[in-house]
Design goal:
- By secondary structure, the protein is α+β, with helices and mostly antiparallel strands.
- It has 14 helices and 49 strands.
- A 16-stranded antiparallel barrel has the order 31-32-33-34-35-36-37-38-39-40-41-45-46-47-48-49. Strands 4-5-3-2-1-30 form a six-stranded mixed sheet, with helices on one face. It has a four-stranded antiparallel sheet with strand order 6-29-28-27.
- The longest helix has 22 residues.
- The chain is globular and about 100 Å long.
Length: 964
């Protein structure tokens, strides 16, 4: 995965794209270590250090291989974060010219993953992300040197980082395959999927292959799978050196688009050659289908679904089928269907056809469909809208066990186990932040075996289904990956998948003494997964790939022999036996989603001799063992390496314009961030500077800042003449010491913050010393059920201070409530503020203007903000605000806000109303290893103002600032 496909040439655009993402680093307050090589700095939490040592050991050799193939070595030292934020396999490349970064996730893929074909997960992941950096961080050979770009562009991206997604992800995937002999390009899974799409006429268009947010249910995989296959096809046409020529042309002094650079090497545009590529793919798929025409072995359609459907589970009594239904941009849903033959629905269908012919004898009866929709008997929308995974029936109870991601106190996602009583509808949590996957209940139903993946270490564990107690079955190991445990019906044995020595194995383990035997070794085949026992325990079904096909197989446990059950150009996987029946259910890909198929006859297909893959190119690294990892030295992370870059902010409104310039920096983990910024307005209404430094290496963050703020609000062009005389110009110099602590509770969180402030204020020839304390506490709760969501929050804040020994105080409270369906949300909020005692220089609360890099409530404790009006337009001692907004996808919303001020009661003033459209985004601390833009916030909008003599006034605003 790469951030480069943000498709932005400037740092601003890149910042906005990541503004609403989730932080992917572990918490800065954890114990971090740094391991260095000649070209890399690896930053890892101490728990993940054993995993990181392996890739550190091989990083220089792997990088050499990547650079030779790609034809370029990135400038500067590369910082690598090793984390596990989602308990899922992934990675990220940040191809910033001269200061690139990488993020590696330690959790390995499972056996049935599209990225499950690997010898060593860490090496495959590193090669893919380093390929992004070598490919996309190449600067243009223009007149402007890299030093200038590093100074002025915090996220300076090269020309190639702005090109189509298929080129970016497809090329890195192609590189992973060339250098490892494994990966997606060498997987039967990729070939089988693409062949299936071709046979169904579903190969994506040239434009669609680069749209991860498209409507196609597998849109996110297109750039990787089809893109890498396109690169394979282009390599056969012109050779691998042609790609280096394209990259050289695309970064030349002569400015060229990617299409122009491509055409100069391949003689035709990428879109036109892609059309030829898909035509040849379709032809090859049809030829393959024809060769199997007389020897196909295939089931019948049981149910056709749109979107992604998976995780089949047949109940022990053979009456029900549980499955997980997923749709793009929708919450997943666990459904339970009856396993009848749907005869009643077919009878109704025939009756309806007969009625149509009776009304219109010239009509033509429709062809009987292979299947008709089945209505679920029970359904569970995903609690908290998090994906439901791996449902399994708990024997002897009306319950299903399933896994779902939860969020710990530091915002990291972990996979936990839950149980659902489908008759009562109750969902109970079993484990807490335990990183448990693919659990299978024992035949007694009182405990389950599960896979535990923590910091790259894998093991099988026993989980008590009543109290969640966890006991080890196998020791945690870095060199072995466990997956898909399935109990034998007698409860004495366990079948599971194990990745060891570079390949997947199907293993049987005797629980009484731990004795194991390998039942099936993938050897040359790259896909082996989905073990499931028959009801009598005499047969074991599984999925296996051979020669570019994924089919079902059956192992006779007593005889020790196995044979093939299906043979087709279509994909067959995830077999699920039906008790008291000879057949089984399985999954296959369809035109618009997954199909549930049923195989009634378990007849053998002659088993051909499998092809054997060659050894990996990097065979010398494959022999690395755990002891070698210990030789890598590490040191405390401390404040980490510091990155500095320019800072640009601005505010635009009819009343005034301002520009912020400065420098911003920090470390990749997010322990330290600092900023120097100056703000100047076009009319001199608000000028100032701030120097700020923040430390987040403890559970509570600390911040110290020095600021100067000069205000002349009467200079704003949008200020009524009657009010201009009421403003007194102010010069303020101050110091602030602040702290904040945040606690995560699932999807909800609470935050407490406070600060000590001292400022010297000059106005009307007087100099005043001010000291104040501010303290606030806020809670924001989120509750989700399926696609429905509900949220609410409350915030209390108080200021206590004195000005020349005269005390003053301000008290605020705010409340927000909202709810919505999928990406649409309706929210209402209320805010009240009251200035109690006042002192010299503390005349009143003021409303209006936009928050900026220098001016905010830390420097202006009596200011409230409304971007549609001039700063200070409303003044008073008591303030009230009511707001209503309707949000859609992203951060765009329609809003209506109204404000009023009074001296002793807010009701004394008339409502000032603003209605319009607004977009806002803010980047949270610690996000994506980008200290250069940490805390950046954007706001833009358009509104119509009514009240205070501004009936029907239309105002637009734009704001880019940095929080500190």
């Amino acid at each position: 995965m790469s951030l480069a496909r943000m498709g932005m040439a400037a740092w601003l655009g890149c910042s906005l794209m990541v503004a609403v993402s989730t932080a992917v680093a572990a918490h800065p307050s954890e114990e971090w270590r740094t391991l260095e090589t000649e070209r890399f700095r690896f930053h890892v939490p101490v728990e993940a250090e054993p995993w990181a040592r392996g890739i550190v050991q091989g990083s220089e050799v792997l990088a050499d291989e990547v650079h030779e193939l790609v034809g370029y070595e990135p400038e500067g030292r590369i910082d690598v974060l090793v984390v596990d934020p989602f308990n899922q396999p992934n990675g990220m490349a940040l191809p910033i010219i001269g200061k690139s970064r990488m993020v590696l996730f330690t959790t390995p893929p499972q056996s049935d993953s599209v990225i499950g074909n690997f010898a060593h997960w860490d090496q495959l992941l590193f090669i893919h992300e380093q390929a992004h950096l070598a490919h996309l961080a190449r600067p243009p050979r223009g007149l402007v040197g890299p030093g200038w770009r590093r100074l002025w562009l915090p996220l300076g991206l090269g020309p190639l980082a702005q090109e189509p997604m298929w080129m970016i992800e497809g090329y890195a995937t192609w590189v992973e395959g060339k250098l490892t002999g494994r990966g997606r390009p060498n997987s039967d899974f990729r070939d089988a999927l693409i062949r299936q799409w071709a046979l169904e006429g579903r190969l994506p268009s040239y434009g669609a292959v680069s749209r991860p947010d498209g409507d196609d249910w597998m849109a996110r995989t297109m750039a990787y799978l089809v893109g890498s296959a396109y690169f394979d096809w282009l390599e056969e046409r012109e050779g691998p050196e042609a790609f280096q020529d394209v990259w050289a042309r695309a970064t030349a002094r002569e400015r060229r688009s990617f299409s122009e650079a491509f055409k100069g090497v391949f003689g035709d545009s990428p879109a036109d050659l892609y059309a030829r590529f898909t035509a040849e793919l379709t032809h090859a798929a049809l030829v393959r289908e024809e060769t199997l025409a007389d020897n196909q072995r295939w089931g019948r359609l049981w149910q056709d679904y749109s979107g992604n459907t998976g995780d089949l589970a047949v109940s022990p009594d053979g009456e029900y089928l549980a499955l997980v239904k997923r749709q793009p941009r929708q919450a997943s849903e666990l459904k339970i269907l009856t396993l009848n033959d749907n005869e009643a629905r077919f009878e109704r269908w025939h009756e309806q056809q007969a009625q149509l012919l009776e009304r219109d004898p010239d009509d033509v009866k429709a062809v009987e469909p292979d299947s008709l929709p089945r209505s679920p008997s029970y359904r569970l929308p995903a609690p908290q809208a998090r994906d439901i995974r791996h449902p399994r029936w708990i024997p002897g109870q009306s319950e299903l066990l399933f896994a779902q991601s939860t969020v710990d106190a530091r915002g990291q996602q972990r996979s936990d186990l839950f149980r659902w009583n489908y008759e009562s509808g109750q969902v109970s949590r079993i484990s807490r932040h335990a990183s448990l996957h693919r659990a299978d209940p024992s035949p007694e139903g009182d405990w389950a075996v599960a896979v535990r993946q923590v910091h790259g270490q894998s093991q099988l564990v026993r989980v008590d289904l009543d109290d969640g107690t966890i006991e080890a079955i196998t020791e945690p190991r870095l060199d072995v990956i466990h997956d898909y445990p399935r109990f034998h019906p007698d409860g004495e044995y366990l079948a599971y998948m194990r990745h060891e020595a570079g390949r997947w194995q199907l293993v049987e383990r005797r629980l009484s003494d731990g004795h194991e035997q390998v039942l099936m070794d993938s050897r040359g085949e790259d896909f082996l997964s989905h073990p499931n026992w028959s009801a009598d325990g005499e047969r074991l079904f599984f999925t296996r790939s051979r020669n570019g096909h994924l089919d079902l197989y059956m192992l006779d446990r007593a005889a020790g022999t196995h044979f093939q059950l299906t043979q087709s150009p279509h994909i067959a996987f995830q077999p699920e036996a039906i008790p008291d029946q000879a057949g089984l259910l399985y999954l296959s890909h369809g035109r618009s989603g997954m199909r549930v198929m049923k195989l009634d006859e378990l007849e053998p297909v002659p088993l051909a001799k499998p092809a054997v893959l060659g050894e990996d190119k990097l065979a010398s690294l494959k022999g690395m063992d755990i002891d070698q990892r210990a030789s890598v030295e590490s040191r405390p992370y401390g404040a980490g390496p510091q990155f500095a870059s320019s800072l640009l902010g601005f505010r635009w409104h009819r009343a005034d314009r301002s520009l912020d310039l400065g420098i911003r920096g920090g470390d990749p983990v997010g322990r330290l961030d600092w900023m120097l910024a100056a703000s100047r307005s076009s009319r001199g209404s608000l000028d100032g500077e701030v120097a700020s430094v923040g430390w987040h290496g403890w559970p509570a963050s600390l911040n110290m800042s020095l600021f100067r703020l000069d205000t002349a609000l009467g200079e704003q062009s949008d200020m009524p003449h009657a009010l201009r005389e009421t403003f007194v110009d102010q010069e303020q110099r101050g110091l602030r010491l602040g702290t904040a602590y945040r606690q995560q509770m699932g999807l909800s969180h609470w935050r407490i913050q406070g600060g000590l402030n001292h400022a010297r204020l000059r106005q009307a020839g007087q100099t005043l010393d001010q000291d104040w304390l501010d303290l606030g506490i806020a809670f924001q709760g989120h509750w989700r059920r399926g696609d429905w969501r509900l949220q609410g929050g409350v915030q209390l804040q108080t200021w206590r201070g004195d000005s020349d020994d005269q005390s003053w105080e301000r008290d605020d409270w705010s409340l927000n409530l909202g709810g919505g369906f999928r990406n649409t949300r309706l929210q209402a909020s209320w805010h009240q503020a009251e200035l109690g005692k006042t002192a010299p220089g503390m005349a009143s609360l003021t409303l209006g203007g936009q928050m900026g890099t220098v001016n905010n409530q830390k420097t202006q404790p009596l200011t409230l903000y409304e971007p549609a009006i001039a700063a200070g337009l409303l003044q008073g001692q008591v303030y009230e605000k009511q707001a209503l907004s309707l949000s859609g996808p992203g951060n765009a919303r329609l809003f209506h806000r109204r404000h009023r001020m009074g001296m002793s009661n807010a009701g004394e003033g008339e409502w000032l109303k603003v209605s319009g459209f607004e977009v806002s985004a803010i980047q949270v601390p610690g996000i994506l290893a980008l200290p250069e833009v940490r805390g950046i916030a954007l706001g833009l909008g358009f509104g119509q103002v009514h009240g205070e003599g501004r009936e029907g006034h239309r105002r637009a605003w734009l704001n880019l600032r940095y929080d500190w």
